[in-house]
Structures are given as structure tokens and as C-alpha cells.
Amino acid sequence: MGARVFISYSHKDEDLRDQLEVQLSMLKRQGLIEVWHDRRLLAGDHLDWTISKELDKADVILLLVSPDFLASDYCYKIEKGRALERHREGTARLVSVILRPCEWQRTDLGQYLVTPTDGVPITRWPDLDEAFLNVSQSIRRTIEELGVGAEAKENHDFIEVAEPAAEVVLPRSSNMRLRKEFTKADEDGFLLDAFEFMDRFFQGSLQELGSRNGGIQVRHRRIDGNCFTATIYQNGDKAASCTVRLNGGFGNGITYADGDDAGSGAYNESISVEKDDQKLFLRPMGMPFMAHGDGDKALSHEGAAEYFWALLINPLQGA
């Protein structure tokens, strides 16, 4: 039997939990882990008692940390509290997975190692698949350290509720993931959110670039609802500039054009919305960095903004 993995999370992060489970598929296939979370509850299960029982049976407890996780009394006080207790006892291993930016460092979780690397939140990684792979690899190392098929651990009644007189546990699959359907409205909204994020990202990046480097002046201009420009001056001379447009090319996408006066039909790169059976993501054509395989990347909003920013700043870095 593989190591039992309990996932504690806020239901507002269910989509991210689903994506994590996809990355854990190889660990499941190899028989290294069995995953449980509250969506495995069966009709008639006693909620608190069943969760308490699964927490006490787990070899590894994953806390999917986000603002909503910290705001949930049940996640933060009960599930996190029991996870820390078992970790300190040495009867289970606690792994904190930082999903979204939050003040986890100011909790007692700050004393322990977290994942992904350096505690960078999942949603801040350019490529979500790479972020979840990083987490999966950390969990694999944890499982290898524990060893598979460890002796059963003593149960502890952390939540004081009456145990049912009898429990019927039927065998069931952990494969409950269904294909998600995305509408054109979903895709358009995702693209618009990406453009607005990119606009703010460029504003913040330009400001920081100017404050860190002498002789650098910057300018950001929001032309209209679908276009902004960015310009970098070095010692008074224009060193780099670009125009970013929503739906600026052929089809539904965001385009990047060299120069802050580029016409609406001109672009050097384009990013469009794509989807798989679980999520929407952004994919570049990959023209400027074709040799690096960037056209194969599935990018988040952050990743797409970072990709376009690299096009702008590369000339100043001698790339």
C-alpha cells in the first residue's frame, strides 16, 4: 500500500487542487500514494468524524495555503492544527504548498520547509505545469524519505465527535476528475484579464527598472481600452519600446510590436488562449525565441507578462 496523502484546502482553490492531482498521477500509478480529500466523502459519511479519521491515518498531510485557506477556521485551526501536531510527534509529514500570495510566513508554518521552491506561490510561476511539477517532485522526495508501506500509526481523536456504531466502506476509485467545458465568454474573459494584468505588470516593472538603475527613464502610456505602450530611455536616448494590443493581430489574442508607435496590424509576437480538459492558459507563437522552444509553453497571466517583458528588456541586457 502506498503512503496515504491527506489534502487540506479551501474549496475556493478547488481548481488548483485538481491541477495538483493531475501532476500526482505518476505517484499514484506507481502505487506510491493514495490521495484523500473531502470530495472523497460518500453519502451518509459523518463529515467531522471522517475527516478526523483520515487526518489521523495520513502519512503525508498537504496544506494548500492561500488567503482563503488562512481565512477558513476549519482549515487553519482544525486541519492545520492537527497536521502540525502529528508532524511534531513524528507520526506524519507536513508539506505546505503555497498556492497564492498570502502571509503564510507569519503563521507557524513559517518554521517549516514549504513548496514550491523558495515559497514562490503557484500562481506566480510563469508556467503552472512547471510549478505543480516542482511540488510533485517535493512530495516524491518526502515519500521516499518516509518509505512506502510504513506501519499503521496510532489514531488520535482530535475532533471530539461520536463514532458511528458501524461504518461500511466501499471500494472506490480516486479517479473522479471530469472534463471541464469552457465557453467563448470564459476564453474572452481570461484573455481580457491577461491584458489588464499585463498592463499593470508593465507599469510596475518600468517603475522598478527606473528606480534601480541610474540614467534610466521610463514611460508607460495607456492608449485606449485595448492598447498600451512602454518606453525605456537610457542616458536620454530611446533604448527600447513596444506596443501591446488586445486583439491586435489575426484572431483572438494579445500582440507585441517593437516600437511605441506601431500600427494596429504590426506585431512581432502574439499570445492566444488555449485550453485542455482542466484549464485555460496562454500560448505564444514563439517567433522571437523559436530556438528556445517558448512556443510550447502553457503560460499563466504572470508568465505571459514576463514573456513580453523579456522581449522589451532584452536589448538593454545585450541579449
From TrEMBL:
SMART domains assigned to the protein according to its UniProt record, in alphabetical order: TIR
Domain TIR, first and last residues per copy: 1-143
Domain of life: Bacteria
PROSITE patterns to which the protein is assigned, alphabetical: TIR
Pfam families named in the record: TIR_2
GO biological process, one term: signal transduction
Protein name per Swiss-Prot or TrEMBL: TIR domain-containing protein
